[in-house]
Amino acid sequence: MFSNFLPGFPRPIIRIIFSFYHYLAKRKNSDIIENMKVLSSFLLFVWEILKIVIIALVIVIPIRYFLFQPFIVKGQSMEPNFEDSNYLIVDELSYRFRDPQRGEVVVFRYPRNVSQRFIKRIIGLPGEKIEIEASVVMVDGKILDESEYFPSGVQTLGNIQISLDENEYFVLGDNRISSFDSRQWGTLPRKNIIGRVYFRAWPITDLTKFEVPSY
Length: 215
Description:
By secondary structure, the protein is an alpha+beta fold. It folds into two domains: 2-66; 77-203, Umud Fragment, subunit A, CATH 2.10.109.10. The chain has helices at 2-5, 11-25, 32-67, 182-185, and strands at residues 68-72, 87-91, 105-109, 117-124, 129-133, 136-139, 142-143, 160-163, 168-172, 188-189, 193-202, 208-209.
């Protein structure tokens, strides 16, 4: 009879309820059936909630840990394009099928302390020669045009010449005057890159989907 009260409910739980019902039946309580209906309805409601939670976890956990993850910007190193407390969505999937591209903003594990996560823009790719001189960035001897994401007059401080090995990247913060990046700590190994910044979800007034800049 309890299969009518508890459709889809796990059989072990039904057996427990059934046994409890027989126990109460021996006491000849006239309200047993009605009470059991109420109890059954309540337990069915709890079970439906648990099913929703389980299904949600099955969907959300893989997305959170294998496809996308949130990142909150801390500090001013990526101004003017990313402000402190911006809430970003990081795409962890794309780089499993292709290599990072110049101009993409990436979140990565800091090479000198992998417990820390940084956000910077990719400037140099594996095999390239990067030079910073007279406040400009050069890639293989050619000035890098960054006008697509920078206002005119931005200067890149430093005096650097570096050749990138295989699976090495050169990254800079957009705030070239105040950024702790490859100019100070060197190249970024490919294995340290978590993913690319795909979407800005906060503030709500500045929702943005980020594309690869064209050079």
